Amino acid sequence: MHNQAAKSLNPDRYFSPDNATRNAARELYQSVAELPIVSPHGHVDPSLFADPHAIFGSPADLFIIPDHYITRMLYSQGIPLESLLEGDHRNIWKIFCENFHLFRGTPSGIWLTDELVSVFGVDEMPSTTNAERLFDIISDKLPSPEFSPRHLFERFNIEVLCTTNAANDLLQQHQAIRQSGWKGRILPTFRPDSVVNLDAPSWRSNIDTLSEVSGVDVIDYQSFICALEQRRAFFKSMGATATDHAVLTPTTAELTLYDADVIFQHALKGEVNTSEVTRFTAHMLMEMARMSVDDGLVMQLHPGSLRNHNNIIFKKFGSDKGADIPIQTEYTRNLLPLINKYGNDSRFTLILFTLDETTYSRELATLAGHYPALKLGPPWWFYDSLNGMARYFDQVIETAGIYNTAGFNDDTRAFLSIPARHDVWRRASANWLAGLVVRHIIDMNDASEMIQDLAVNLAKRTYKL
After folding, report:
1. What's the predicted TM-score (pTM) here?
2. Cα(55)–Cα(28) distance, rounded to whole angstroms?
3. What domains does the chain contain, in order, with CATH numbers?
4. Is the pLDDT of residue 6 over 60?
5. Full DSSP string of 81-150
6. SS3 of residue 162 by DSSP
7. Sheet bearing 374-376, strands edge to edge
8. Is 449 helix (H, G, I), strand (E, B) or coil?
9. Is 150 in contact with 50 (CB distance < 8 Å)?
10. What is residue 9's predicted lDDT score, i.e. its pLDDT?
């Protein structure tokens, strides 16, 4: 079970076993393999790049502790989170290596193998017998300049990396990157969930901070809107091209100014109820769309995740520990008020994501195939996988075409996994296009243009990068 067989990366990995398809896929992939990486949406910490002398921590810091893909799988097998998030890092790494077989056939297994081989030259499967040695090999490399975040950014050939930042963020790390003179392009993304969603943790103190950082005394709904517009303008001045919004459901509905202010006043007093929270969130999605029309920031909507499903884990360890579970999500009726008002406006771009794949062909492809403002984000979270990408291509493209999609984004906290994730997308795209070529649906000239767009151009164009 825990053999140490070499894990060299086969150059034809992920391609079809059919010779004609594989040969076409190989040719298409090779045309984009060395293109720069455009990462328009993700959650990498910008502080990694603010300090030119920054280094990564231990192998456990790098691969395990911050990665809920890893910890959720290990936890599902009865391994306590305490043993993965707390204590001696060498022991955390040992547990990970002893259980590396759990990731066979999973996206995490693909990414981890790629990272170990491509970044660290570790050409063997982690196991009980080599855990100590691999920990030492990686630990010895991390302090060297060649493995600094900035150097790896350049080695990975990243053209632009967008982070995700709360509305109250002063973007000091981004300012430090700018002032350092380093040429790496790291851009913020405006995410206002902590002040827009009235049931967000510490919402009232977040509003106080919003007043402080915006210079607008938030005492009512109208001053709240002014403060948000000020923050959006600041983010845009720092290079932001997009906003991001996480909601349980994509419900949209417009309130009157009076009703919006009544709910906001209730929230300020700590007297808001669940119905008011839902109505206000739906209204604020409309407001965010209006602001995007005005300031040109691309709007991203990520619905459908019931956060912190495991209450015991949430109480002990907090959020983002692998206990977020998808729910069934409806778009056509929920988004009707928003896209009827803004979906035909050429100044507006709304990128939709889903964790409910049943909506791809029934709703999302048909919506994006009609409304000029709508674009479909790539397979997200649980579906950022070879099979998830294949299903996406099969269910979306016939109706929407690739040019109503936003290309690829890695949406990751794990910086080291970015090249591996983009490589999977490029290989999956090449394999899908090759299938169209061998069935004479498109020719190689079409496919050659399409693979360039899927790899880089669609993301750059949609996110205005």
Report:
1. 0.96
2. 36
3. 19-53+157-462 (3.20.20.140), 55-147 (1.10.2020.10)
4. no
5. THHHHSS-HHHHHHHHHHTGGGGTTSHHHHHHHHHHHHHH---B---TTTHHHHHHHHHHHTTSGGGSHH
6. strand
7. 165-166, 190-191, 242-247, 298-303, 350-352, 374-376
8. helix
9. no
10. 94
